[in-house]
Amino acid sequence: MAQAKKGFLDGAYKVEDPDATKSLYRDWAATYEEEVRNNGYVTPTRCATALAAMAEDPSAALLDLGCGTGLSGEALQAAGFTTLDGSDFSEDMLAFARKKGLYRNLVKGDLNNPLPARKGDYRYIAAIGVFSPGHAPAAMIADVMAVLPKGGLFVFSMNDHAMEDPSYEAEIERLIAAGTAEMAFKEYGEHLPGRGIKAFVIILQKL
Asked: The pTM is what?
């Protein structure tokens, strides 16, 4: 695929603190979907397809963390999930998600703070295109596993840039070693072909 026109996407991998990330996504909201689609963004579909293959009840409540404008919600709905709630730190992004009518509830939430969920609220949780040093910390993986019920599934992606930060893999390995979670699915594949970036799709299951 030929490299697409540059925009905010290049800057997204350079911000390293929460305030700069919030400013970026505020300014990017209106053109976000066009830019990532033009770069062949396939991770939402990869994550949704993998989760649907393992989910016993697609009608059970699913929390879409970092839902942005709702691209992940579109993929999850297309994969058969029918009860979606979403959360994002950008009110500007959420405004676009609301217009789609995909979500039962949408709330503003910062992934560096407590999750907008209590233990047992959700059978499934997704964080698609969320993990990066300036956005969601590695500790959030443990936070998600803590609120999932036994057997619950957490699907998330780790792109090439995120994999450069060893804290994410270390946290996954820690949870598995502690008997909190098991690796139910892991696959490396396309993320943003227009930028030559790939990603792991990972599903952890709560033990």
From this structure: 0.87
